[in-house]
Amino acid sequence: MAMPAEAARGVLGSLLRDFPSPLGPEDPLPWSAQGSAALSRAEAPGELAELARRFLGGRDAPPLLAASLIHAAIDEVLQTDLSVFKKQSVEEEEEGDQGKFTLLDGGSLQRCFFNKLRDICCEWQKQLPSLKSLKRFLLISSHAIRNIRRKMEDRHVSLPEFNQLFGLSDDVDRAYFAVFDGHGGVDAANYAATHLHINVALHKEILKNPTEALKGSFQQTDEMFLFKAERERLRSGTTGVSALIVGNRLHIAWVGDSQVMLVQQGKAVTLMEPHKPEREDERMRIEALGGCVTYMDCWRVNGTLAVSRAIGDIYQKPYISGNADGNSFELTGSEDYLLLACDGFFDAIRPYDVVDLVLDHLKQNKGDGLKVAERLVSAAKENGSSDNITVLVVFLRDPRDILADCLRDPKSLSVDEGAEDSPFNFFSSEMNNQSDSHTTTKS
Hints:
Phosphatase 2c, domain 1; 2 domains; protein tyrosine/serine/threonine phosphatase activity
């Protein structure tokens, strides 16, 4: 389904009114907290895309149009000579070899990018390219809360417009989703949420072997963040789980204990095993490297982290590995939905309870699934989770059809409609005022 041209031109006109003339060297950036920051050449696409996403999202640009604009502007910037933005070089010595990493001036590069974005808005107002969305049904519900923690260190990414953002025009549907659970600060989670999907799209195996692209991109993102962590003295890390739907296949990859699960015809399907120190293979790997796994209220690597793999954690490498595991599954059309969440959710809610919670929500809301993630987050909080909680639900079928199928098959119902003594009735409490929800639909 293509975006109506008249509506797109109206949005472009609105953007140009907010951005009437090109930015000069001293002009403030339209949306940037750290415009003068240094960034490496590899970081440029992700940082520019995230900057533009916030800028365009703040002006209510439709995601399909925003993704297409971002791709066109980044493509033009990366074709220019980036050496004019050179800020400094960082030299490192490894095993006697000297590697040089060029850093670019973020402020100058971002001004160039916004001017390219403005030029493209002008061009597209005159002649709009075709903007085609996904052919398959997707409905996305996401919700995240800080809970009682001092800081919110979770991040999540929902990108049904994966093809448009990266200019992939091979007529194969692609959609990307990820959840990151930071620890020791939010820097690693922010970084992974900004760069991992960029690395996936640019990976040499993205077309032939998407699972390998996902796995390799975790390692690449880890290496990129470690370079940043060393020069900026950052200590944080993040677990992460990502899912990439390509045509009729689901590809996943993960580090740590954030998880993805699938529900198929009302049944919970386990897709992965989290990386925890008590796993026998993880414990053996850590001990072979000279580390240890000890029990201190839970199993921990070297007495500190309760996960054995993560992006970042520079002072715990190589015991905390950035290498991801991955898997691939065929989608037959019988799948109901995917659920990605951090351990703050899965430590409080069992996978098979997810099915009952979602079904109960759909029954109470006549098949409307837009706020199902809020219900699940509330369930985890009510069930004792004190951690940050992030839940991202991707419906692969219309939730009204899922509800209808369940009502036709009483054996699949775990909760009686309207039952006063339902074990899930107490989960319908209101969210606290620290919550942050977001929903998107695609059809």
